[in-house]
Every structure is written in C-alpha cells, then in structure tokens.
C-alpha cells in the first residue's frame, strides 16, 4: 500500500480505530479527509484515551460531522494494515458501526474538505479510482487533488459488500 512521506506526528498510534456508517435514503455519509490518509471515508478515528470504542464513535462522529449518535450497532471488527500519520501507525484494530444519528451535518473545517451522501454507484466510482491509485496508475499528486476511497475503507467496503 502507498504511504506518503512525512506523515508521522509526535503522537503515538494507539492501533485502535472506529468507523461509523450513517445511511439516509440509501446513501452513505462520507467525508473527504483534509489530512493524511487522503481519500473519502465514513466518519472515523482513533480510540485514544476514550473508555470504549462506543465512546470514541460518539466523539468522532460529532467532531467530524456535528451529528449526534442515537444508536450504534456493531457490524464488523478486525485488524487491517493501514498507515496513518501517527508515529508507528501501520495497522489498526477496527470496530465498524451502523449508526442512527440526529442533527444536521456540520462538517469539521479542520478535518474535512467536504461531506456528502453517496449512493452505492457513486461509492463504486470512488472505489475504481482507489484501485487505480493502488496499482500505480494515479500519481500521489493526482490522488491528493481528486482521491477515491481511503485505501483502508476500500478494503472495508469490499468486506462489507458495499462495493
């Protein structure tokens, strides 16, 4: 998997992450990441000092989208190799949730370039771009200007049969 140079931070990776799927009208909420790892992904983040994956899911969802969790349903968990910008971040143990959320999307200007609701067809188009990037058909510069799915989410969406 491609890894952009200069992506580490002084913060040590905790190797645990959470991701949230929010569906409305058969469309999935995705954010385009402003920071490495670049690409489109559901709201997600590290567990850090949270007491649980569920607490982190609530925090990350509100931080990135302004939405509040009404309910969480675990749909998948497991380890995936995926680089992050934190020191030592080469893999993460994930818990992925379907989320019922309330409120209006108010994206984080610090963490996101944009947010939107994407149909399965639109997600498949983003996945096609990721596949091209991972095979070297798209340069790092081209990817950063117009990414597809964040590579780890390309894997998760295949596992979850979304693509």
3D structure, described in words:
With 163 residues, the protein is α+β, with helices and mostly antiparallel strands. The protein has a domain of 111 residues: Nucleoside Triphosphate Pyrophosphohydrolase. It is built from four helices and ten strands. The strands form three sheets. The protein has a four-stranded mixed β-sheet with strand order 6-2-9-7, with helices on one face. The N terminus is likely disordered.
Report a brief summary of the structure.
It is built from four helices and ten strands.
- Strand numbers in spatial order across the main sheet: 6-2-9-7
CATH topology of the domain at 9-119: Nucleoside Triphosphate Pyrophosphohydrolase
Order of helices and strands: EEEEEEHEEEEHHH
Rg result: 15 Å
Q: What form results from the Cα inertia axes?
A: globular
Low-pLDDT stretches are 1-6
| Straight-line N-to-C gap | 19 Å
Give the class-level CATH name of the domain at 9-119.
Alpha Beta
Oligomer: single chain
| Proper CATH architecture of the domain at 9-119 | Alpha-Beta Complex
Tally the helices: what do you get?
4
């Amino acid at each position: 998997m491609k890894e952009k140079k200069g992506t580490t931070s002084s913060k040590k990776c905790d190797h645990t992450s959470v991701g949230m799927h929010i569906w409305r009208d058969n469309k999935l909420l995705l954010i385009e990441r402003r920071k490495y790892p670049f690409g489109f992904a559901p709201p997600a983040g590290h567990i850090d000092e949270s007491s649980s994956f569920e607490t982190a899911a609530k925090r990350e969802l509100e931080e990135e989208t302004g939405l509040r969790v009404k309910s969480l349903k675990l749909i998948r968990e497991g380890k995936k190799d995926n680089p992050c910008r934190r020191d030592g971040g080469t893999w993460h143990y994930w818990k992925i949730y379907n989320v019922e959320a309330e409120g209006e999307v108010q994206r984080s200007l610090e963490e996101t370039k944009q947010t939107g609701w994407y149909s399965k067809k639109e997600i498949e188009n983003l996945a096609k771009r990721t596949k091209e990037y991972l095979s070297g058909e798209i340069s790092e510069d081209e990817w950063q200007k117009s990414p597809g799915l964040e590579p780890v989410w390309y894997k998760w969406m295949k596992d979850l049969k979304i693509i």
